[in-house]
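Hello again, I could really use a second opinion on something today. I've been staring at a protein lately and its backbone has me curious. Please have a think about how the structure follows from the sequence. I owe you a coffee for this, so here goes:
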Amino acid sequence: MSDEIELKLLLAPAQLAKLNRLPLVRSLATGRARRAQLDSTYFDTPDFALRDGDMALRVRRIGERRVQTLKMAPQTAARFAEDAGPSAQAGMQHYLEFEAEVPGDLPELDRIEHTGLQAWFADTGLMERLEPVFTTAIERRTLPLRMADTEIELAMDVGEIRARGRGEPIAEAELELKWGQPTRLFELAMMLAQELPVRLGGPTKAARGYALYAGAQPTPSKGEKPSLTPGMSVSEAFAAVMRCNLDHMRTNEDAVFVGADPEGVHQHRVAVRRARAALSVFKPAMHAAAHALLAEELRWLQRELGPARDLDVFREDTVAPLLRRLPSEPSLPALDRTVEEARRAAYARAHAALEDPRYARLLLRLELFLAEGTWKQPGEGGQAGPADAPIGELAAALLDKRQRQLRKIHRKARSGDEAALHAVRIAAKKLRYAGEFFRNLYGRKATKAYLAAVADIQETLGAVNDAVVGHRLLDELEPKLAKSGEDPRLAVGIVMGWQAARIEDDLKRFEAVWHAWRKTRPFWQAGAKR
């Protein structure tokens, strides 16, 4: 068994060809680049027992040799009483490999020397049911690198995955830790992202192969909520919250690129919003420079994704219903075409942001901060810093503050002014995000009731939010709409009237929702779980 810890970077083939010629890479190289043709066949059972068991089995042809490899994550190996091996930093790909030479192109599982796995193979009749699923053909160049106290192998892969007559190109670089400090992989990747337009890699070749075999398209993911415990420090809680936000962003990248479901860009933007909310929540424990850097980069990312989401919502919740209700109104189809044109441009902008090395550097910087703890504000005079305090202290004080802010903003919004009501919605959203971060520190029943009441405030003011965004979009779209030959004032007037009616509807319910929230006991004031 061997242990594989690596970080994957995606590049266009032309950029990948430049990688090993970079002065940075040449300065770190400790040997010459080697080339190899790697042709692999991946095997599984008809019911995908290996895939569903979080494993991947391949036989690779390397010249005249045939090498069989079974890969699994450390947590999978633990099910078979196998040592998980050395730990890797979160954000890296970490696998255990069972490798053996075989005489032919078919796997021979009896060559895997592991009692627990052999028992599972026998119980499931795995060997007798294996069949080819997909193949990969890769030309690989490898280069050994030394970075301070760490040795890294740079592998540059160009090729293709094939399954059921379909093909998908591969162009990626893998930074594999041979020995030393795992965080050096993040550091090197950040330096490479300064030189070339890279993206941080996601699914493994095996995962991509299975998806290609199934003809599956990327689907949006709502992400996991952080699971905090009362015994955590502020530092541990921040890491757990930001890890969920990072994973939420990463799992929606492909759905944004495909663009078939507006939920993809929505969920990616939700992840960014939650990350920004976490920075606000944990700011008292953060080093000022780290907070400023992350805040600026996340603000940039949200700005780039915002137009695509705003136009999706405007088209689905305003333009489409109006087209159904007023099918003979000639100004509305022109508005719809203008919105769709702007939407395509907005999606191109979102794609460009996720392909921008600035995004890759943001992800890598976050990974480094979490791995090294350099985001924390140090204590004074050798004392513990605020990041070392129990999370319950920060949670209760922060939630009290957010609740007071919501009440104060509500008092200013009694005039019914749209901008003031929009501010109430934003304050409710900030309180809800903070409550969701900390919900596991308190009793589930009280937490659920309170957060549902806050969510009702936010949802009831949804039309106000749509109107604020819609007015801005109409201002931007009006010159383009005028070029269509229709009088833009008519479409604008119809939209404004529609939104005014929706706001009036929402406001009729709002005060009842507000009073229901006021009667709900703040869960953090009842004390944390023991």
Notes: The domain at 234-378+385-526 is CATH 1.40.20.10 (CHAD domain). The mean pLDDT is 90. The chain has two domains: 2-214, 234-378+385-526.
